[in-house]
Specification:
Elements (H helix, E strand, L loop, with lengths): L1 E4 L2 H7 L5 E3 L7 H11 L19 E5 L2 E2 L11 H4 L5 E5 L5
Parallel strand pairs: 1-5
Antiparallel strand pairs: 1-2, 3-4, 3-5
Length: 98
C-alpha cells in the first residue's frame, strides 16, 4: 500500500480525511501514484497535474523521505520506504511571497 498525504483543499475536493492508501502496480513512481490517485478520485484530475501535458501544477510540490522530488523525473522510482508504505508521498502546496 502506498500512502499519500495531500493538502486540505484537495482532501476536501475528494471528500476524505487523513491520508490516502493506494495500490500501485509495477514500479512505484510519482506518475504511477498520481495515476492510481486520479483513478480512485476522478475529481482530482487536473488539480495536481495539467490535463494535457501531465506536468505538475505550479505551487504544488512532491516530497518523500525528507527530499524534494518536485523537479525529478515523474518516472523515477520512489524511495523504497515509500514503495513499502513505511513513509508517505507528500503532495504539498508551496507558499509564495516574501
Amino acid at each position: 500500500m502506498i500512502r499519500v498525504v495531500m493538502p486540505a483543499h484537495l482532501r476536501t475536493l475528494a471528500s476524505f480525511h487523513g491520508e490516502v492508501q493506494l495500490e500501485v502496480q509495477g514500479t512505484v513512481t510519482v506518475r504511477t501514484v498520481l495515476d492510481a490517485l486520479e483513478a480512485q478520485f476522478p475529481m482530482l484530475r487536473g488539480t495536481i497535474r495539467e490535463h494535457v501535458t501531465q506536468e505538475r501544477r505550479p505551487f504544488l510540490r512532491f516530497f518523500a523521505c525528507g527530499e524534494d522530488l518536485s523537479h525529478d523525473s515523474v518516472d523515477a522510482p520512489l524511495p523504497d520506504a515509500v514503495a513499502s508504505g513505511a513513509e508517505p508521498l507528500l503532495i504539498i502546496g508551496a507558499i509564495a511571497g516574501g
